[in-house]
């Protein structure tokens, strides 16, 4: 008899030996439209068993590396600040043990907890951000800890020119104007220019946050705030792989899958494959100091 443990397929290394640690952040209390992202981690782990551990795109296998899946955190649903503290504590412990935290959200606010831990260890870090939305509001309906404000809160930690945004196609006018004024490195509507930014980043520590609604809802309808005009699946998959291969990645997250919004399961399947390609790229690269 074996323990009944559901993890992301191929991610069954022990914690001590692992280079990458997956953990889930099942939180969606500030979701502004369609809730349900708290169920993403469980859905992704379950559906990952429909995948192979081999990537024909990279000609590599996930089990060539060592990944530990911690499972979903037991979060204090209803208290955003308490939840962010729990996420920060978890990510900080992973950083302290010399491992790379890979968080599965949850709504996008969960990124702030992981970034708070990352910036304490890597004060010169940059953030690479794929998304349909700016997430740069000062507040949303008077609430500063909202998924609509998460990148603005991250900017308060890292400052001007250290957040690189791609795929953005929705937000208020003042958010676009604020980003374009130099507060962020702003690349709206597509992932064009990504290669040049990766080359410029060099060995700088990079935290990578992927809001899956960067993809068009025609291929990824299972998200809380679908926004037409996004990239196709292959473009997104190749881009996240390139990031994980080329930058000095110190942490990352994938968020905003809402399984109840897509009962076909197609969006969950897409999320699983994005995560598999990211993990394979991370564990098979030459780790930078």
TrEMBL record:
Domain of life according to the entry: Bacteria
Binding site for Mn(2+): 108, 131, 133, 135, 211, 213
Top-rank EC class of the record's enzyme: hydrolase
Alphabetically ordered keywords of this record: Hydrolase, Manganese, Metal-binding
Cofactor binding note from Swiss-Prot or TrEMBL: Binds 2 manganese ions per subunit.
Single GO MF annotation: agmatinase activity
Cofactors that this protein relies on: Mn(2+)
Bilayer-crossing regions: none
GO term, biological process aspect, one: putrescine biosynthetic process from arginine, via agmatine
Keyword Manganese found: yes
Enzyme Commission identifier(s): 3.5.3.11
Record-linked PANTHER family: ARGINASE/AGMATINASE, GUANIDINO ACID HYDROLASE, MITOCHONDRIAL
Family, as annotated: Belongs to the arginase family. Agmatinase subfamily.
Protein name: Agmatinase
The organism of origin for this protein: Candidatus Mediterraneibacter caccavium
């Amino acid at each position: 008899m074996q323990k009944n443990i559901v993890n992301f397929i191929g991610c069954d290394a022990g914690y001590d030996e692992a280079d990458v640690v997956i953990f889930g952040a099942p939180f969606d209390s500030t979701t502004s439209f369609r809730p349900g992202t708290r169920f993403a981690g469980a859905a992704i782990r379950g559906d990952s068993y429909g995948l192979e551990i081999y990537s024909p795109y990279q000609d590599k296998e996930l089990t060539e590396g060592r990944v530990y899946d911690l499972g979903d955190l037991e979060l204090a649903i209803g208290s955003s600040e308490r939840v962010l503290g729990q996420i920060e504590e978890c990510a900080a412990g992973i950083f302290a043990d010399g491992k790379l935290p890979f968080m599965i959200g949850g709504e996008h606010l969960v990124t702030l907890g992981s970034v708070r831990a990352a910036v304490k260890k890597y004060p010169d870090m940059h953030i690479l951000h794929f998304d349909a939305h700016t997430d740069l509001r000062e507040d949303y309906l008077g609430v500063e800890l909202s998924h609509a404000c998460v990148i603005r809160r991250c900017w308060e930690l890292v400052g001007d020119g250290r957040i690189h945004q791609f795929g953005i196609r929705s937000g208020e006018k003042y958010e676009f104007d604020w980003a374009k004024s130099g507060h962020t490195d702003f690349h709206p509507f597509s992932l064009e220019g990504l290669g040049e930014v990766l080359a410029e980043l060099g060995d700088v520590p990079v935290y990578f946050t992927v809001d899956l609604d960067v993809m068009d809802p025609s291929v990824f309808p299972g998200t809380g705030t679908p926004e037409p005009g996004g990239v196709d699946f292959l473009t997104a998959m190749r881009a996240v792989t390139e990031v994980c291969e080329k930058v000095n990645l110190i942490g990352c997250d994938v968020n905003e899958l809402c399984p109840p919004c897509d009962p076909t399961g197609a969006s969950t399947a897409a999320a699983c494959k994005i995560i598999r390609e990211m993990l394979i790229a991370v564990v098979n690269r030459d780790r930078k100091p």
